[in-house]
Design brief:
The protein has 416 residues and is mainly alpha-helical. 55% of the residues lie in helices and 8% in strands. The chain contains 15 helices and nine strands.
């Protein structure tokens, strides 16, 4: 609940600039504030401390703060000015709908985050595995089948938008560094395991299951080997989504939606049928069985490694919220409130988004040779991205010259 350190707005207004931010951070609330005070509090929490800040209001005096917050919420019965400044408008009395909005937004973010990590990781697995196999053995999978593999992979991931994601108790942050690190982890580990499996099967002493990556007289691998590699990559990339989406160990996490599970299963069945019955491949059933066995085992191993890697980079999702129902408030002592306040502050500090992830700078540099390259012929030329009519080459070159050290920049603020 709310702590007891509630300060008058006048104390914040009269505080020196070097201590004002700390006063705002340590306070549990402010009373008798002006519209400018509300906006200042929101901006300090957002820009100075890097918190994703929300604001509720119903009147004209709240409009400035609602507009400044990342999530401005106009309550039921709010004025038109408050509604126009807000990002979210409540249609029911009370603040309980905010809880449902937070849960749903965290579920949406979990789905987007899982797909982004998965998409990059799957691309790394495909590129590294296929490239290294080609460079080492000259065994190239048919280009048409690689296109079909990518198409199957994309289509089967459409149900991710309807996945059974759970909201976490702690906010998940859109930090690009951790997203890239997780993608690299999955991509490099799965590519390494795939290469180990493929080359170990190529050197299998049991000729019933061995694959020939070199072919007769080193003229190229057999169709069976190409089909083996293709189906293995299908299975690796399809199963990976279940590990990426799971906040904890996959067997202890909420199950995926039936749409996602069914889509992956149908893709695997189709991939197995193509590998086993396509005339140019005809992969034996024993090899398909080895692929399934290895991928299930490696999937569980990688999922266990995932837990330690996320802990190492500080990306532990924490516990999940299993129910959408609000908790019934209980009576707490002042000591319990103080402890809970400390927990809230610790969570706030962990939820700070750094400047690099909140602000992005796009730099545009002009080069005199580039506009001339996009000549449309005659007197129509491209100049700095715009079509200029009746301008000769000499005029174009003169207008394209940029003084040394001059550059144009545009700063784009992230919604976080």
């Amino acid at each position: 609940g709310l702590g007891t350190n509630v300060l008058p707005g006048e104390e914040m207004r009269n505080a020196p600039s070097e201590t004002k931010n700390d006063i705002i951070w340590n306070a549990d609330g402010f009373a008798a504030v002006l519209p400018s005070d509300k906006r200042e509090i929101v901006l300090v929490l957002r820009n100075h401390f890097g918190l994703v800040t929300g604001m509720t209001g119903d009147g004209v005096n709240d409009a400035a703060a609602l507009s400044a917050a990342q999530v401005g919420i106009a309550v039921a019965g709010a004025t038109d000015a408050a509604k126009n400044a807000a990002d979210l408008i409540l249609t029911e009395e009370g603040l309980s709908p905010i809880y449902g909005a937070v849960l749903e937004s965290r579920r949406i973010f979990a789905r987007i985050k899982a797909y982004v990590v998965y998409r990059v990781a799957a691309s790394i697995v495909l590129v590294l595995t296929l490239s290294i196999v080609i460079f080492v053995t000259s065994c190239a999978v048919d280009s048409l089948m690689i296109i079909i593999l990518a198409l199957l992979n994309d289509v089967s991931m459409i149900p991710v938008a309807y996945d059974n994601a759970k909201a976490t108790t702690k906010p998940q942050l859109p930090v690009a560094k951790t997203l890239v690190l997780q993608s690299l982890f999955y991509g490099l580990v799965q590519a390494g395991l795939s290469l180990m499996f493929i080359f170990s099967m190529a050197n299998n002493r049991d000729e019933r299951f061995a694959i020939d990556l070199n072919g007769p007289n080193n003229e190229g691998c057999t169709g069976e080997a190409r089909g083996f590699i293709w189906f293995h990559l299908v299975m690796v990339t399809e199963l990976m989504i279940f590990s990426v989406r799971a906040p904890r160990f996959v067997l202890l996490s909420p199950p995926p939606s039936m749409y996602l599970a069914g889509s992956v299963l149908l893709t695997l069945i189709l991939g197995g049928l193509l590998a086993g019955f396509l005339q140019m491949w005809t992969v034996p059933g024993g090899d398909i069985g080895w692929i399934i066995l290895f991928n299930v085992a490696s999937f569980l191993v990688v999922d266990l490694m995932k837990l330690q890697f996320r802990k190492m980079i500080g990306e532990e999702p924490g516990d999940v919220i299993l129910s959408d129902d609000l908790l019934t408030p209980t009576t707490r002592t002042e000591t319990q409130k103080t402890v809970e306040k400390g927990e809230r502050y610790r969570t706030h500090r962990e939820s700070i988004v750094g400047d690099a992830d909140r602000n992005h700078v796009v730099e545009v540099k002009s080069k005199s040779g580039l506009p001339a390259f996009f000549s449309l012929g005659g007197e129509t030329m491209m100049d700095n991205g715009y079509v200029n009519v009746r301008k000769g080459v000499a005029g174009l070159a003169a207008s394209s010259v940029v003084p040394s050290g001059t550059r144009r920049t545009k700063q784009v603020s992230s919604p976080y």
